[in-house]
Amino acid sequence: MKKIGLIVNPIAGMGGSTGLKGTDGMIEEALRRGARPSSPARAAKALEALKGIESEFILMCAAGPLGEEEAVMAGLSPQIIDMTVQGNSEDTRELCREFIRREADAVIFAGGDGTARDVLDIAGDKVTVIGIPAGVKIHSAVFAQKPEYAGIILRRFITGELRGTRLAEVMDIDEELYRQGAVSSRLYGYMKVPFDNRLLQGKKSGSQPSDAASQQSIAWDITDSMEEDAIYLVGPGSTTSHIMKTLNLPYTLIGIDAVMNRSLVAEDLSEKDILKLIEEYPDKNIKLILTPIGGQGIILGRGNQQISSRVLEKIDRDDIIIAASRNKLAELRGRPFILDTGDRETDERLSGYLSVVTGYREYVIYRAE
Q: Which of 19, 28, 53, 80 is paired with 317 by a 20 to 30 Å CA distance?
């Protein structure tokens, strides 16, 4: 019988919808802006995959929102570890120490890159890990592409279908610099993950210098095609930043800006700001410009949680514009774009084949799921 350790960072991801670009040191501000916890539901969604094989594993976790509540939500009966909860990253480290002492076969954790670093500090490569994506920024390769995929991977690990492991990168960025628009990612180490390249995400890769010409030609195509009186929500990324530069407008590299008639309407919008903007312009067509994360292919659900399912309800599928260089698409090696809004109906509505702008008057059709 496999022993599985569960860790949930209950505040992970709360800075996303509010436009804070992260939660480290910002939880009070996130709450003030009306942020709601998303990590518990994402953890429960992953654990639902374990239903029906309860006799094959023991699930260990701490009481309350650090794991117990999420396990119960998924219909599981966990073994509770008695520990003093401090309400910070030390909770994660202490749980990891206890899991290793109890000879856990695997640790599944819900959080972001910061949580992965805390697990790495204690677990290293001593135990197999699986990350449930629940943070704002997730550059590390120890995470599944979606919460439900993390559960599928763990189920296959428990049943013995997945036997091999590989070392995957743990990356993180300086959130203070990130909020200022500077993305500086650093490798902190490696952890063992089950060998499943189809469901695990890759580490984030940055744009290559050779992409600059393609990004500019993409920007010319999109700006030349902009419709009069339509509102364009321009998502984060270096590819989309070329659109704002071409329009000679200020922009938020890692936020959401709004443009109408080639003028800036609003910048660095939160989910609440976007919904308010849509209400203020009820007769305007709303369009959304996105670029997939390099090396991962995620177009919704990472770094742009401001574009929530509530926002996407207001946007027609045909009004979503995907921009990506051919090099960025080639990095995916045929893997589909990933939709991870946290709402299954929204993901299903937007899935399928999408048109992607790859250059000036150059387009390809690419699948999203």
A: 19
